[in-house]
Amino acid sequence: MIRNQWYAVLESRELPKDKLVGVTRLGENLIFWRNKKSEVICLKDKCAHRGAKLSIGKICDDGELIECPFHGLRYDRTGKCTIIPANGKNSIVPERFKVDNYPTREEYDFIWIWWGDEQFDYPALPFFEDIDRKFSYKTHAEIWPVHYSRAIENQLDVIHLPFVHSNTIGRGYQTLVHGPLIEPDKEGNGFTFWVYNQKDDGNTRPLKPEEFTDDMKVFHLNFKFPHIWQNYLGEKVRIFIAFVPIDENNTQFYMRFYQKFIRIPILKSFVNWLANKFNIIILHQDRRVVVTQLPTKTQLKMNEQLIQGDNPIVYYRRRREELKSLKQLK
After folding, report:
1. Does domain 136-329 have CATH number 3.90.380.10?
2. I want to staple 272 with a disulfide (CB 3.0 to 4.6 A). Which of 3, 138, 248, 314 is the partner?
3. Residue 16: HSE in the Cβ half-sphere, 13 Å Cα cutoff
4. Euclidean distance between CA atoms 320 and 284, whole angstroms
5. SS3 (DSSP) at 41
6. Domain residue ranges in the chain
7. What's the pLDDT tens digit per position in 156-185?
8. Which CATH code is given to the segment(s) 5-115?
9. How many angstroms separate the CA atoms of 170 and 138, rounded?
10. Nearest-5° angle of CA 147, CA 149, CA 151?
């Protein structure tokens, strides 16, 4: 995983008030809860005393403290232990009785954590600015037994549609792939890639990215590091996925169908539900193949023979390695 990044790790609806929620994210066991002000707090889910899970404990003092279920040690939002009951209320708690805490943000109906070094000034959350509050959405969540890099690369793969999705979005057998054309954003934290596929007539050669013409820019996708993607189907319709790393071998998907062409509440909900059902079918067509790929985790140099149509995957791998190295140096 890339350090010193904001990661969306839960949907807001998954963290109700007055409840401790324990999950594995980024290879770590984490605990989440809300205080009286509904602010989200995140700590490592392991008591400093004997290693019990804090997530099966309880919330105390209007959500400002949580209590370990084993011996009653209490921790504040910073992860500092405030009392060890066996030592008495008047005893001083040694500084070593502390668990890691994680800065949190709540935006776009996601809960985000900062995974990395403490910062004086944290960067903005990564999201697609053109998905505004006028959009409504429906979410589908599921887990794939693959590293999140494999899951992401499937959505950067523009040459599999006629084969994996032959009876859905790959109809027409448009196997010849021009480009794809990749346009990095100014900050270097994401990119857009334009795709143009056509039937192979036996005479046309695939155009190189630099030969891509403006009239071919009819379909594109976006990716932002570390782990969000959108299929830009139009100004008023998007498909979004957050690929949330659980550990080295499992990825949590949060797939959303966004739209703003229907505003009537009941009809809006039905359309969102129906579209999401179709997207789940497509997602499961992908899953059938991706879970068979080896290794489950990808890297810049590996035993694969890539072609021009794999350019978005190559770009992603190179930029991911650059960001990993950059974050480690800081």
Report:
1. yes
2. 138
3. 2
4. 26
5. strand
6. 5-115, 136-329
7. 999 999 999 999 999 999 999 999 999 999
8. 2.102.10.10
9. 23
10. 75
